[in-house]
Amino acid sequence: MLPDARGWGTRLNVAKHHKYSVDVVWTGNDGSGTKTYRGYRRDHTIDVESKASILGSSDPAFRGDPTRYNPEELLVASLSACHMLSYLHLCSVNGICVVDYRDAAIGEMAEDAHGSGAFLSVELRPSVTISEGSSSRAIELHDAAHHLCFIANSVNFTVLVKPEVTISSEPF
């Protein structure tokens, strides 16, 4: 068993372990390092072997480059993608044929007076189109997907899922 993310009790009977190696390299040194708060860029790259680099920075509210992904966006994206992949799996084994899936996820973070902060919640808003199967069952599977999602099981804030399902009139 592993301790939960906060170190309280146990959450999992571990059957397998997985490791993920990611290289994060700061690329924002303009010649004087971090000598002053305004004297460096927050730019960095995120690399995984044999994959395209992700260009990262901090949120523009924290002097970041608005054209690059920030960690907060990547956290929301990770929750959304993990839920989607869990959901698609469940649909495939439950006779639901998904032909389109989109999520307009929103994360809310609060910052305190000292500059620290934490996510309060993330709301996933998947819009799913199915060509076969029950739309009510397709909605129900979102709850099961939420409980399967590795990322949602790893965070200590609320993750809400507000799905919509439509049935396609187009043959596939």
3D architecture notes:
This protein has 172 residues and is of the alpha+beta class. The protein has 2 helices and 11 strands; from the N terminus they run E-E-E-E-E-H-E-E-E-E-H-E-E. The protein has 2 domains: 1-69, no CATH class; 71-167, K homology (KH) domain (GMP Synthetase, Chain A, domain 3). The chain has a 3-stranded antiparallel beta sheet, with no helix packed on it. The protein has helices at 71-93, 135-148, and strands at 2-3, 10-12, 23-26, 44-47, 54-56, 97-103, 106-111, 117-124, 126-132, 158-161, 164-167. The protein starts with a strand and ends in a 5-residue tail after the last strand. Strand 7 and strand 8 form a beta hairpin. Mean pLDDT is 89; it is low at 1-10. The longest helix has 23 residues, at 71-93.
Radius of gyration: 20 Å
Number of strands: 11
What would the principal axes of the Cα set say about the shape? elongated
Described by strand count, sense and barrel closure, the largest sheet is: 3 strands, antiparallel
Number of helices: 2
Q: Structural class, from helix and strand content?
A: alpha+beta
User: Would you identify the CATH architecture of the largest domain?
Assistant: 2-Layer Sandwich
Which band does the percent of strand residues land in?
A: 25-35%
- If strands are numbered along the chain, what order do they take across the biggest sheet? 3-4-5
Order of helices and strands: EEEEEHEEEEHEE
Mean pLDDT across all amino acids = 89
| Number of separate structural domains | 2
N-to-C CA distance: 44 Å
Fill in the CATH topology of the largest domain. GMP Synthetase, Chain A, domain 3
What's the CATH H-level homologous superfamily of the largest domain?
K homology (KH) domain
* Unreliably modeled segments: 1-10
Q: In which range does the helix fraction lie?
A: 10-25%
In CATH, what is the class of the largest domain?
Answer: Alpha Beta
